[in-house]
TrEMBL record:
Transmembrane regions listed in the UniProt entry: 57-78, 112-132, 144-163
Membrane topology: Multi-pass membrane protein
Ranges of compositional bias, category Acidic residues: 19-31
Coiled coil: none
Basic and acidic residues bias: start-end ranges: 1-15
Domain DUF3817: 57-169
Subcellular location: Cell membrane
Keywords from the UniProt entry: Cell membrane, Membrane, Transmembrane, Transmembrane helix
Record-linked NCBIfam families: integ_memb_HG
Domain of life: Bacteria
Location of region: Disordered: 1-44
InterPro entries the record matches: DUF3817_TM (IPR023845)
Record protein name field: DUF3817 domain-containing protein
Amino acid sequence: MSQDHPTPDPRHEPVDPDTLPDPEDITEDDLGPAPARPQTRRRFAGTRQQIRGAKTFYKVCAWITGVMLLLLVAEMIAKYGFGNEIFAGGVTADGVENTVGFHPEDSVTGGVNLSSAILIAHGWMYVVYLFAGFRVWNFMRWNPLRLFLMAGGGVVPFLSFIVEKKIDRDVEAELHRFPDAALRY
């Protein structure tokens, strides 16, 4: 029984190191001319796939940050309006087991302060949201004002939902308006 062996590709044959020139002997003339640089600036800084991936990541981050911001606002109202924080577990000052509830700051022992957890989670999610917004902004090569609008979405309640919709529409409109601009490879 004979097996068919494909002919070896000369580009992938092993190279004998003794046949290679000494790196110190190579000059710029040995390298040849550099490829021509494009004369026009590319419209986008990424491919369609990169842009759409960045947009999807931004959308997810915008929604998570928006929801976290609304939880943060509710927590601030509870804390500064009513003097209570959200606790999970622990025992109240009255000796009653706490599952989840609103209690004054120092009245629960052994529980988890969910108010602090909301603050920390929103802060870190906002950092990820800023990174996601920067990626979209960079790929689309928009002006800096648009980046500040996107950043504001994570600190103004409900704005992240509005900005996310606008960014989604603008990205798709520009990709549709410049269909060949995103081709790089």
